[in-house]
Design brief:
It is a multi-pass membrane protein. Keywords: Copper, Copper transport, Ion transport, Membrane, Transmembrane, Transmembrane helix, Transport. One of its GO terms (cellular component) is plasma membrane. It is found in: Membrane. This protein is mainly α.
Length: 159
């Protein structure tokens, strides 16, 4: 083998050098992708280039944190809400229940993907949003009845 040109599984071809790559990897101002938790306002959360550089728009990091926080609260609300009236048409109720489930799963995945930015602030606001959402909508603190027969239209979320 000469300088990795005949690497096993590479079909006799060397991997492309970073300088010959095209696409997002060719930009030198690209943000580093973290694989461990880090602290800081320069993070990329959910969308490419969002919230952007903390030097250009420092407030956008806090907007992103607020977005993840609210998203987490909404996931908890969907997990514990009662929107389907008892005695509703079974087909219509089943369709609404399915749509609510799909919305809850989609939003929960968005929170998960935001956490995968590995930014410590994003992680903390996601957990805080879930905790506050559960306190308001899932715990007994604000429940008027003591009968926990059915507290939600949706089954418990499972990972």
């Amino acid at each position: 083998m000469e300088h990795g040109h005949d690497m096993p599984g590479m079909g006799g071809m060397a991997p492309p050098s970073p300088m010959s790559m095209t696409g997002p990897m060719q930009h030198h101002d690209m943000m580093m992708m973290h694989m461990t938790f880090f602290w800081g306002r320069s993070a990329e959360i959910l969308f490419s280039g969002w919230p952007g550089s903390s030097d250009e728009r420092p407030y956008m990091y806090f907007v992103a944190l607020l977005f993840v926080f609210v998203l987490s609260i909404v996931v908890e609300w969907l997990s514990h809400c009662r929107l389907i009236k008892p005695g509703s048409n079974h087909v219509a109720a089943g369709l609404v229940q399915t749509l609510l489930h799909a919305l809850r799963v989609g939003l929960a995945y968005m929170v998960m993907l935001a956490i995968m930015s590995f930014n410590g602030g994003v992680f903390l606001v996601a957990v805080a949003g879930h905790a506050l959402g559960f306190l308001f909508f899932g715990s007994r603190v604000f429940k008027r009845t003591q009968n926990p027969a059915k507290t939600s239209d949706l089954p418990p979320a499972s990972c």
